[in-house]
Amino acid sequence: MKKWLTIFIVIIMTSLCTEYFIPLETLANGVAVGPSALEIDNALRNEEYEKQIVLFNPGEEEIAYTLDTEGDAKAWISFWNNNAAVIPSKKISIPAHDEKNILVKIVVPKDAINGQHEASIVVTNVLTSENGQMTGQGVQVSAQVSVSIMVTGDQILAGTINSISTADTEADNLLQLKISFQNTGNVIATPLITVSISANGSYIDKINSAETQIGPGNTDIILVGWDTTGRQTGSYSAHITISLGNTIIAEDTLEFSILPTGTLTRSGTLTQLEIEGKLEQNKLIVILANFVNTCQVNTKAIFLGEIYFNNGLIDVIESDEISIAAGASNKLKSYLQLENSGQYLVKGYVNYEGNTTEIQELSFSVGETNKSESSYNWLIIGIITGIASLIVGIVVIIRIRT
Description:
The chain has 402 residues and is mainly beta. It contains two helices and 27 strands. The protein has helices at 2-19, 368-401, and strands at 32-34, 37-43, 48-56, 63-70, 77-81, 84-85, 91-94, 99-107, 115-125, 142-151, 159-165, 169-170, 174-183, 192-199, 202-209, 219-227, 234-244, 247-259, 268-276, 283-293, 299-309, 312-318, 322-324, 329-338, 342-352, 355-356, 360-366. It is flat and about 105 Å long.
């Protein structure tokens, strides 16, 4: 009822202002996008390439944007956000002063001719009213990103290895090899990694891995694991061979040790507490604890927290225990039911195999914002009603005198 009353008063006010020549202000909603150009050299027919653009909303309110394409290569381009295609209207909304990364996928048709192909990505703000209809107010602006694609008949399968590394591990843990691979060709590369494990000069095991696909121009870390379950402690060596097609592009031998369980010091950090969900009464929210495993072996971790409401302890929460790989991070999930409006405080830490992180705190309020907005809405209604009444009175007086 309040919403319809507000709309009714605004309609009356707008009508009066229009009839009696009181000007209405218009505001321009901004568009910021980068980079200004995307380029693909030596593009191969029937291949897919990926680029990224960033959309930024510099305005004070949430703005919806449309994404469109122009030029002879416009049909090759599609937009993706959070691993989902931006379809069917190619529209995306961004909160005030926030940004979103958009993945641009470019698929070169199998019948594309050799040469330079051009396109433009056009980002335009959407002007809408409360009921979703287009308004005649405001300023619609656009920004463009140029796209240049050079199609050639050459298939270049090439890559370089930036680094190969490993670290000591404990018995019954996973030994992890890290290979940094850069695709310098113009097609997707799937390196074949062969690892031969030796102990005391004798071959004991072999691993083949060809699972990681890396797009043209991209650099990625390829992880190859060796399960040490049942292996004796001691010194080992790993001979690594990396191939593309029928060509060996890198070889190296690394020394490592399998240590007794408990030798390596566990270490980790609780970097941040976050909230997922609406901060409203009777809503269920998710508390996310971001934990980084900074030691050299896998670590089991669990988040333990206390919930305070208006300075009083009301509940305790904990996440499921999960295993986090060496050097990796993960978010531990806990759940909280917001039964009352007021001020909440979360205090918690991560326990990882008997070790604990420092305590992190996160405070938030429930209900106060809604109450404030409601009071603000009624204040605006009162002001608009008063002004409207004053204008109507002036109009009546003018007409009586004339």
